[in-house]
Design goal:
The structure is a single chain. The chain is mainly alpha-helical. The protein has one domain. 66% of the residues lie in helices and 0% in strands. The chain has 7 helices and no strands. The longest helix is centred in the last third of the chain and has 39 residues.
Protein backbone atom coordinates (compact mmCIF):
# COMPACT_ATOMS: atom_id res chain seq x y z
CA UNK A 1 0.00 0.00 0.00
CA UNK A 2 1.41 3.39 -0.94
CA UNK A 3 1.54 6.32 1.45
CA UNK A 4 -1.32 7.92 -0.51
CA UNK A 5 -3.44 4.77 -0.21
CA UNK A 6 -2.78 4.70 3.53
CA UNK A 7 -3.87 8.36 3.81
CA UNK A 8 -7.10 7.47 2.00
CA UNK A 9 -7.82 4.60 4.40
CA UNK A 10 -7.18 6.89 7.37
CA UNK A 11 -9.46 9.55 5.83
CA UNK A 12 -12.17 6.90 5.31
CA UNK A 13 -11.75 5.81 8.95
CA UNK A 14 -12.22 9.37 10.19
CA UNK A 15 -15.28 9.91 7.97
CA UNK A 16 -16.77 6.66 9.26
CA UNK A 17 -16.14 7.54 12.91
CA UNK A 18 -17.29 11.15 12.60
CA UNK A 19 -20.24 10.15 10.42
CA UNK A 20 -21.94 8.12 13.13
CA UNK A 21 -20.61 4.69 12.09
CA UNK A 22 -23.07 4.59 9.19
CA UNK A 23 -22.84 1.90 6.51
CA UNK A 24 -22.67 4.59 3.84
CA UNK A 25 -19.36 5.73 5.32
CA UNK A 26 -17.96 2.21 5.72
CA UNK A 27 -16.06 2.08 2.45
CA UNK A 28 -14.83 -0.98 0.63
CA UNK A 29 -11.27 0.38 1.06
CA UNK A 30 -11.68 0.61 4.86
CA UNK A 31 -13.34 -2.81 5.06
CA UNK A 32 -10.57 -4.42 3.00
CA UNK A 33 -7.86 -2.91 5.18
CA UNK A 34 -9.57 -4.08 8.37
CA UNK A 35 -10.05 -7.67 7.26
CA UNK A 36 -6.57 -7.94 5.80
CA UNK A 37 -4.51 -6.29 8.54
CA UNK A 38 -6.37 -6.47 11.86
CA UNK A 39 -6.47 -10.19 12.65
CA UNK A 40 -10.12 -10.59 11.73
CA UNK A 41 -11.35 -13.93 10.48
CA UNK A 42 -12.65 -14.12 6.95
CA UNK A 43 -15.80 -12.09 6.55
CA UNK A 44 -17.49 -12.61 3.23
CA UNK A 45 -18.60 -9.08 2.52
CA UNK A 46 -18.45 -5.50 3.71
CA UNK A 47 -22.15 -5.74 4.56
CA UNK A 48 -21.60 -8.93 6.59
CA UNK A 49 -18.72 -7.40 8.53
CA UNK A 50 -20.80 -4.30 9.19
CA UNK A 51 -23.71 -6.42 10.45
CA UNK A 52 -21.42 -8.31 12.84
CA UNK A 53 -19.82 -5.23 14.38
CA UNK A 54 -22.13 -2.27 13.86
CA UNK A 55 -25.75 -3.49 13.98
CA UNK A 56 -25.65 -3.95 17.76
CA UNK A 57 -24.13 -1.32 20.08
CA UNK A 58 -22.61 -3.99 22.34
CA UNK A 59 -20.77 -5.49 19.36
CA UNK A 60 -19.61 -2.04 18.34
CA UNK A 61 -18.21 -1.45 21.81
CA UNK A 62 -16.26 -4.73 21.53
CA UNK A 63 -14.99 -3.65 18.10
CA UNK A 64 -13.83 -0.29 19.47
CA UNK A 65 -11.99 -2.01 22.34
CA UNK A 66 -9.51 -3.30 19.76
CA UNK A 67 -8.54 0.31 19.05
CA UNK A 68 -8.28 1.37 22.69
CA UNK A 69 -4.71 1.59 24.00
CA UNK A 70 -6.00 1.56 27.58
CA UNK A 71 -7.47 -1.88 26.88
CA UNK A 72 -4.32 -3.16 25.20
CA UNK A 73 -5.54 -3.06 21.58
CA UNK A 74 -6.25 -6.78 21.67
CA UNK A 75 -7.77 -8.14 18.48
CA UNK A 76 -11.51 -8.68 18.80
CA UNK A 77 -11.28 -12.04 17.07
CA UNK A 78 -7.78 -13.47 17.57
CA UNK A 79 -7.07 -12.12 21.05
CA UNK A 80 -3.58 -11.00 19.95
CA UNK A 81 -1.85 -7.71 19.15
CA UNK A 82 0.13 -8.73 16.08
CA UNK A 83 -1.69 -6.12 13.99
CA UNK A 84 0.11 -3.22 15.75
CA UNK A 85 3.49 -4.73 16.70
CA UNK A 86 5.53 -7.92 16.67
CA UNK A 87 3.38 -9.37 13.92
CA UNK A 88 4.08 -11.25 10.77
CA UNK A 89 5.16 -9.90 7.39
CA UNK A 90 1.55 -9.19 6.42
CA UNK A 91 1.02 -6.74 9.29
CA UNK A 92 4.45 -5.11 9.55
CA UNK A 93 3.95 -2.83 6.58
CA UNK A 94 0.80 -1.44 8.16
CA UNK A 95 1.86 -0.72 11.74
CA UNK A 96 2.07 2.98 10.90
CA UNK A 97 -1.49 3.12 9.54
CA UNK A 98 -2.94 0.82 12.18
CA UNK A 99 -1.43 2.91 14.98
CA UNK A 100 -2.57 6.12 13.28
CA UNK A 101 -6.10 4.74 13.23
CA UNK A 102 -5.86 4.06 16.97
CA UNK A 103 -4.59 7.58 17.59
CA UNK A 104 -7.35 9.10 15.42
CA UNK A 105 -10.04 7.26 17.38
CA UNK A 106 -8.67 8.08 20.85
CA UNK A 107 -10.26 11.54 21.26
CA UNK A 108 -13.59 10.24 19.92
CA UNK A 109 -13.80 7.19 22.21
CA UNK A 110 -15.43 8.86 25.25
CA UNK A 111 -18.36 10.22 23.20
CA UNK A 112 -18.72 7.01 21.19
CA UNK A 113 -18.75 4.96 24.40
CA UNK A 114 -21.35 7.22 25.98
CA UNK A 115 -23.59 7.06 22.91
CA UNK A 116 -23.26 3.30 22.44
CA UNK A 117 -23.78 2.58 26.13
CA UNK A 118 -26.92 4.72 26.00
CA UNK A 119 -28.12 2.71 22.98
CA UNK A 120 -27.35 -0.53 24.82
CA UNK A 121 -29.33 0.65 27.84
CA UNK A 122 -32.31 1.67 25.70
CA UNK A 123 -32.30 -1.70 23.94
CA UNK A 124 -32.09 -3.55 27.26
CA UNK A 125 -34.97 -1.51 28.68
CA UNK A 126 -37.04 -2.23 25.55
CA UNK A 127 -36.36 -5.98 25.86
CA UNK A 128 -37.24 -5.82 29.56
CA UNK A 129 -40.54 -4.08 28.83
CA UNK A 130 -41.37 -6.67 26.18
CA UNK A 131 -40.62 -9.48 28.62
CA UNK A 132 -42.68 -7.81 31.35
CA UNK A 133 -45.58 -7.61 28.90
CA UNK A 134 -45.23 -11.34 28.14
CA UNK A 135 -45.18 -12.12 31.86
CA UNK A 136 -48.34 -10.10 32.41
CA UNK A 137 -50.08 -11.86 29.51
CA UNK A 138 -49.05 -15.29 30.80
CA UNK A 139 -50.29 -14.46 34.30
CA UNK A 140 -53.59 -13.26 32.87
CA UNK A 141 -54.01 -16.51 30.90
CA UNK A 142 -53.25 -18.55 34.00
CA UNK A 143 -55.83 -16.62 35.98
CA UNK A 144 -58.40 -17.07 33.23
CA UNK A 145 -57.77 -20.83 33.19
CA UNK A 146 -58.12 -21.04 36.95
CA UNK A 147 -61.49 -19.30 36.78
CA UNK A 148 -62.86 -21.78 34.19
Amino acid sequence: MTADEKRKVLADWLKFLNGGLKIERFTERLYTHLIMHYEYIAHYSRQGFYEVYFSDPEATLRFLDQFDREKGCVSTESGMILWIRNGNDICQGYYDLNNAMIDALAPLLPNLHQSLEGDTLRRAEQRMMEEQKKVAELRLRQEERKQK
